[in-house]
Specification:
The protein is of the alpha+beta class and 163 residues long. It is built from four helices and eight strands.
């Protein structure tokens, strides 16, 4: 994807969005611990590097600020994980990560995407709704620490890029 500027003229920061490499495993494992009560292990994060199903994009400045993991299988896409460090939230970084997923879906002719989200995660639900996702089902008591329902959200009929 490359570099882009975030912020105003007085306080601007150069941010890079790129695909994950093996060198990112440790930093993404630490990010997982800071963002999720059900953090993926370092081995799970490492497995993403060689996965033929998963795409992982990293958002970084001087350090890694966030990442997104999604997969496209059998004509559908699934958002597996999106995370931004707590101290860097509220600056539009999640939108940059969602944008790359939507662009990659369009390139691959994927018109339907799904995800699961904690029912109480209102900021994430608002973000997903802004990208066309709508609640279609609930998985009762799916999450733990704390126990919470999972909302199953779908975005259907997304635009594609003609080939």
């Amino acid at each position: 994807m490359g570099y882009f500027q975030m912020g105003n003229a007085r306080k601007s920061m150069e941010i890079m969005l790129r695909k994950m490499t093996i060198e990112d495993v440790s930093a993404l494992s630490e990010l997982e611990k800071q963002c999720f009560t059900d953090a993926w292990s370092e081995n799970m994060v490492r497995d993403l590097v060689d996965s033929s199903w998963d795409e992982v994009w990293v958002l970084e400045s001087e350090t890694i600020l966030g990442y997104i993991n999604f997969r496209f299988i059998a004509g559908e896409g699934e958002l597996m994980r999106i995370a931004v460090l707590p101290e860097h939230r509220g600056h539009g970084y999640s939108r940059k990560l969602m944008d790359v997923m939507m662009e990659e879906a369009a390139k691959k002719q994927i018109t339907d995407l799904t995800l699961e989200v904690r029912a109480g995660n209102e900021p994430a639900i608002g973000l997903y709704k802004a990208y066309g996702f709508a609640e279609e089902a609930v998985r009762k008591n799916y999450y733990h620490n704390p126990t919470e329902d999972a909302l199953i959200m779908w975005a259907h009929g997304l635009p594609t890029i003609p080939t």
